[in-house]
Automatic annotation (TrEMBL):
One of its GO terms (molecular function) is zinc ion binding. Belongs to the Deltex family. Its main location: cytoplasm. One of its GO terms (biological process) is protein ubiquitination. It catalyses: S-ubiquitinyl-[E2 ubiquitin-conjugating enzyme]-L-cysteine + [acceptor protein]-L-lysine = [E2 ubiquitin-conjugating enzyme]-L-cysteine + N(6)-ubiquitinyl-[acceptor protein]-L-lysine. It comes from Hyalella azteca (Amphipod). This is E3 ubiquitin-protein ligase. The gene is LOC108677889. Pathway: Protein modification; protein ubiquitination. It is found in: Cytoplasm. The chain holds residues 161 to 388 of 388 of the full protein. One of its GO terms (cellular component) is cytoplasm. Its EC number is 2.3.2.27. Residues 25-83 form the RING-type domain. Keywords: Cytoplasm, Metal-binding, Transferase, Zinc, Zinc-finger.
Amino acid sequence: LATHTKEVEDASTSAAAAAEKGPECSICLSNCHEESPYQAQKETSRDIVGSVSLSRCGHVFHACCVLQLVSHDATSIVCPNCKTIHGVMTGTQPPGGTMTVQTQSMHLPGYPHSKTIVVSYNFPRGVQDAKHPNPGRPYYLVGFPRVAYLPDTRQGRQVLSLLRKAFDRRLIFTVGTSATTSQPDCVVWNGVHHKTEVTNHGGHGYPDPNYLDNVTMELAALGVTEDS
Ligand code: APR
Ligand code: ZN
């Protein structure tokens, strides 16, 4: 028991000492009031001294450590501690794509009183850029135009406007290896789920009472919200 008590005392004393020194930078795991071990590593961060707090969440890091997270053409950074997005997140969706919308009078399972919004995505052929897995090689369009269904309800229309925003920010598709076909260099979905079936044959259709809530959360995780 004596040993245990001693350990607890030691731990609380060192925690108190650390708190007095200042917060820990979770990027380099050293104290913000001490120099970052990365300070001298990069030419770009050599002169950036001291610490900064991110404007939206207030988490504190060494300035030079935050710089390591930012690429030269970044439009946003995500707090390493709490994932709050600062700025506008954009993706690596190929350029020149189209997102078209139609309304049809049919009803989706689960929405017997609503019409249906049909969203159609397509892309011209093209070549991968520096942010894609194989820059310079072409990408392949398998299963395009891709069609997705939403109920024409208040929430369905809300999701449609969020999808439009995400598409404009190049977040709906990316280039990669298709998980379902294992084919590399394809234009693939980027994690925002779409209902590509009316009824549930392959697990991507209706009914699914949680779909609109779930996709709204997936979009929010990318910083796409009504007021963003
Ligand atoms: N419909 C909707 N989403 C799908 C489908 C589908 N048929 N198949 C997979 N997904 C989802 C997966 O759940 C995953 O989250 O897309 C994400 C990426 O999976 P990949 O297989 O890499 O996607 P991708 O190759 O782009 O598309 C698979 O979706 O729309 C259809 O015709 C398309 O057959 C293709 C399939
Ligand atoms: Zn640091």
